[in-house]
Structure formats: structure tokens, C-alpha cells
Amino acid sequence: MTEDKFKKVIAHAKEYGFVFQSSEIYDGLSAVYDYGQNGSELKENIKRYWKDSMVKLHENIVAVDSAIFMHPEVWKASGHVGAFNDPLIDNKDSKKRYRADVLIEEHVAKIEAKINKDIEKAKKRFGDAFDEKQFRETNSRIIERQKKINTILDRFKKATETGNLAEIKQIIIDEGITCPVSGSKNWTDVRQFNLMFDTKLGSVSENADKIYLRPETAQGIFVNYLNVQKTGRMKLPFGIAQIGKAFRNEIVARQFIFRMREFEQMEMQFFIRPGEEDKWFEYWKNTRIKWHKALNLGNENYRFHDHENLAHYAKAATDIEFKFPFGFKELEGIHSRTDFDLTRHQEFSGKKLQYFDPETNKSYVPYVIETSIGVDRMFLAILSNAYDEETIKKENGKTETRTVLRIPPALAPVKVAILPLVKKDGLPEKAREILNMLKYDFNCQYEEKDSIGKRYRRQDATGTPFCITVDHQTLKDNTVTIRYRDTMEQKRIKTENILETVDNEVNIKNLLKKLG
Ligand code: GAP
Predict the structure, then answer these.
(1) 158: domain range?
(2) In a domain, 5, yes or no
(3) How far apart are the first and last CA of the chain?
(4) Residue 82 pLDDT exceeds 60
(5) 92-99 long-range Cβ contacts below 8 angstroms, 24+ apart
(6) Do 149 and 221 share a domain, yes or no?
(7) CB proximity list for 360: less than 8 A, separation 6 or greater
(8) Domain total for the chain?
(9) Of 193, 222, 253, which residue constitutes the final position of a domain?
């Protein structure tokens, strides 16, 4: 999908009540979004699918709902006060602010794009005989460009590891990186910028303590580790899951809901015996990719990306990347966090956070494998993948385009639309009777305005998997037409079979069963 199509997805999201700019009538707030009537339903369904897959399918995983505000010491212990920074740089001419690491990454991506272009050209020239590996290893231009990339990444890695901000700026200067707005190389020094939002606790703000809006939900799980373990009499290994808002003062917030300042996370901390982390890391990599692939968004749209630059807490980390309209980007992180967090909370709180293992008769601080996914990113993955402009041939030989959201039926905001063919002859009454029968099981929509064709198109545009049309024959033999969103196929079925037919396709249970 091109950037151009991505713009269409964004416009569609607004036009059909999925996503609105926050405070839009006041010209919006940068990188903050609201979910509309359809968006909030889709979001709820994503969360339900995730939570059920964690809690219902694992007898040793439970969920909590911890507060957004936490004791300020939590963020010192977790390392966020000291280390949750991005390096930023300003262009003195355009007055625009950038993340220095992103400028460097984008510069590297441009060189990579040149390599790929050469490869594409060669592929066309040599046809089936083309050997990409050999070409990469022997073509002098590619070798030189790859060497350049490696040198930049090496320098950047060393500079980041040693916190050498002057060196990060020097890379930008040496590589001749220009400001995308002013085109100049007139840069300020690189500074560290902490991503946490802070506020004051208490009614008299001058005397109040500084507290933070949580930048991740994970810490709410760690500080409740012992509460849950004791009250739930949990035995290792066990997991605690949580869905909730997180806040980050992102320097460069772009790409719609991909990087927001207020967003939602679905995180799960899996507490294990030290020494078993490699086994569980693999287990969670496999379990999470299966969860994604069960949605049928196309297996080719996922890949793992192992981290080389590990966060301060991690022993190993991998991203599940998804092919967004703007390329492969992180959708979910899976991290082997060792005993870092619990040990730090022990130190800072002075409370023991250990597990007594009845099998070994020893107490120890458990290790943790974390899975962490952004609800909003998952939403964007689904929405951009679902958006389709399909050319259809009409009976008169002409063509038309229908815009359809092929959202996985189990996640669709509205499951079934009930449409009386005309607004008279007792059809609306019959349609409402059917609606009253279905509304306890599904999110339904009743529509009687406009031609049936227009109504079908509107339902296609919001991703409704089924339309039920009530016509004059319905009054005679109690049958309706059921129309399938993806194929536009229409079938006549008995009214009493609607519930089962729809349920077979839209019940989240079917997705969960694929996960075993
Ligand atoms: N507890 C670990 C943690 O928070 P992370 O990689 O910083 O790790 C996890 O974030 C996930 O949260 C990401 O994979 C992404 O899906 C989502 N996420 C992070 N920052 C985000 C932002 N600014 N806007 C939207 N989603 C974000």
C-alpha cells in the first residue's frame, strides 16, 4: 500500500466514525486522537480478543487494572526517571525539532532504498538467472553503500551506549543530513529529553509532589506482583495481564495513531524460575505470532526483528513487526526482562518481592518475560489492512468502485445490519422483530433510509460482515436475504437460522479456538 492509500485510510477513518482528531473543533491536539462510534467498538473487540487469549486460554494468567498514577519512586526504580530519554536536535533555521536517532535511521533507510533499487533493476535485467546474494556480495556500488550503512550504525550504536551526544551530532554533520523543512544543516547540539509527562498531586499545587502519568502499564503489574501471587495463591510460572492507558511526550509524533502521546497498551508479565527464560521467551514469541496470524491479515505481513541495542532492563528482546502502509514497523515487543524490575522495586521500596519455591525449598526473585502491544497500533494494522477499493462489474457492463473494510468478522464494530427493503407494507415492523431477536447476541444496526444498494455500500464501508434484508417474501415464508460483505454473495435463509449463521462467523470464540 502506498502513502497515498494511507491518506485515504486516514480520511476514511474520520468519515466513518472510527478515529477523530482530539479536540478537533479547537484545531486538534497534536498526536492525540479520539475513537468514534465504530472505532471504539473495534478497539473493544481487539482488547477482548487479547484478554481472552491471555486469561481464558491460560489457567495461570490473571488480569489486573492498576492506577495510572503511581508513587514517584516507582519511576526511579524502573529507570524511567534516569533513562527514558530520546535524543533531540533542533534545526536553527526551520525551528523544527527532530529525534536525532530518527534522522540517522531515515538517512540509513535512504541508502538502503538505493541498494534495493539497484537490486530491482538487476532482477529485471537478469530474470530467472538472478542471484541476489551473489549480486550483493560482488556489485561494487552495493558493497560500498552497505559498508557506509554499517559504519554509520556502528558509530551510532557506540555513541548511544556511551551516551555520547556530541558524537550523535557529529554523525549528522558528517553524513550531511539536512532538515526536511529548511533543507539546511544548521543544527543545535543534541540533548536528552525525558518522555514522561508530570503533574502535581494534591489540591495546593505549589506544595505538592511531582508525579508522573505512567509511560507503560508494566510497572503497575510489577508493584502488584506479591499482592496477586499471595491472594491468588499463584505458583510459578504465572502471568499478570493488564490493558490500560500510557502516556509519552513523543518528540516526533507522526503517522496517525502509530505514535501517539496518549495511547493504550496490552501488557503481560510472565513470572518464571530464573534459568528458564530462554524457553519461555521462545514460547511467548510463538504464542504471540500465532495470535496475530489467526486474524488472517496475511502471514507475509509479519516478521520478527531481534534487538541489538537492548533496553537497560532486557536480556533479549524481539519485535513483531507488521507491514504498515509506510513499511515494516514495530507492532509488539517481547522482552526477556530478567529479575531487573522486581529487584529494583525491592531495593527502592525495602519490601521483599520474592517467591518461595516449594519444589526447591528456596526463595528467589522471579525472572520475567514480557509481551507488550499497543492497542492503537493493532487498530491501525487492522484498519489499513482491511481497507480495500474493489472494482466491480455491473450488469450493464460498466464498472464501479466499492470501498470495503475487510475487518476480521469477529472484530468488526457492527456484526449485522437489518434492512427492510422498503419503508412500508409492514417490512420495518418485521425487520425490528428480527433486530429484537438478534440484539442480545450481536451489535446490530437497523437502517431503512436510501436504496438498498446505498445501504449495502455504507455497511461495506464500516466493515459489517452481514446484511439481512427483509422483503415481501419474508412476510409470506419467514425467510430473509443474507448478504456476505467480502463476496457480496446473497443467500435466502430462514429467520430462525440467522443467529447461528452469523454467530459461526463473528464469535471471538472461533478465533480463540484457532489458538488452541
Ligand atoms: N513495557 C514495555 C514497553 O512499554 P515499548 O516497546 O516501549 O515497551 C510497547 O512499547 C508497545 O507499545 C509498542 O510495541 C507499541 O505497540 C506501543 N507503543 C509504544 N509507544 C507508543 C506510542 N507513542 N503510540 C502508540 N503506541 C505505542
Answers:
(1) 85-193
(2) no
(3) 32
(4) yes
(5) 92/184, 92/186, 92/187, 92/188, 93/179, 93/182, 93/184, 93/186, 94/179, 94/181, 94/182, 94/184, 96/179, 96/180, 96/181, 96/182, 97/251, 97/252, 98/179, 98/251, 98/252, 99/251, 99/252
(6) no
(7) none
(8) 3
(9) 193
Q: Are residues 109 and 233 in the same domain?
A: no
Q: Nearest residue CA, atom 6 of ligand 1?
A: 333
Kindly report the CATH number assigned to the domain that includes residue 173: 3.30.40.230
Sign of CA dihedral 240, 242, 247, 248: positive
Compute the distance from residue 348 Cα to the ligand 1 centre, in Å.
Answer: 25
Ligand 1 centroid vs 374 CA: distance in angstroms? 6
My answer on whether 105 and 207 are in the same domain is no
Residue 118 CB less than 6 A away from ligand 1: no
What's the per-residue H, E or C state across 1-40?
CCHHHHHHHHHHHHHCCCEEECCHHHCCCCCCEEECHHHH
| Spatial separation of the C-alpha atoms in residues 145 and 112, rounded to whole Å | 8
In a 3-state reduction of DSSP, which class is residue 284?
helix
Residue of 329, 330, 341, 368 best suited for mutating to test ligand 1, as the one with most atoms within 8 Å of CB: 330
Q: What residues form DSSP beta bridges with 489? A: none
Ligand 1 centroid distance, CA of 267 (Å): 10
Statement to judge: residues 276 and 347 lie in one domain: yes
Q: Based on the fold, state whether residues 130 and 160 are members of the same structural domain.
A: yes
Do 467 and 344 lie in one domain? The reply is: no
Whether 347 and 485 share a structural domain: no
- Tell me the pLDDT tens digit for each residue of 255-293: 899 999 999 999 999 999 999 999 999 999 999 999 999
202 and 184 within one domain: no
Q: How many angstroms separate the alpha carbon of residue 293 from the centre of ligand 1?
A: 20
**pLDDT tens profile 182-195:** 999 999 999 999 99
Ligand 1 pocket residue status of 88, Cβ below 6 Å = no
